[in-house]
């Protein structure tokens, strides 16, 4: 039962860390162009000499 003293704050810290990473990804506009990334792999941009 004494291990809960360590595990509960650790779980809260890890949850807050994941939430902050999610908020950072929203602020850095990672989710703005969801369709562009799926179509970008289909285009051939190689410039052969």
UniProtKB/TrEMBL annotation:
InterPro entries: Cyt_oxidase_maturation_cbb3 (IPR004714). It comes from the Bacteria. The chain crosses the membrane at residues 6-26. Keywords: Membrane, Transmembrane, Transmembrane helix. This is Cbb3-type cytochrome oxidase assembly protein CcoS.
């Amino acid at each position: 039962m004494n291990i809960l003293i360590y595990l509960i704050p650790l779980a809260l810290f890890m949850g807050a860390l994941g939430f902050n990473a999610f908020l950072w990804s929203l602020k850095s506009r990672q989710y703005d162009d969801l369709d562009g990334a799926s179509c970008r792999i289909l285009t051939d941009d190689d410039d052969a000499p």
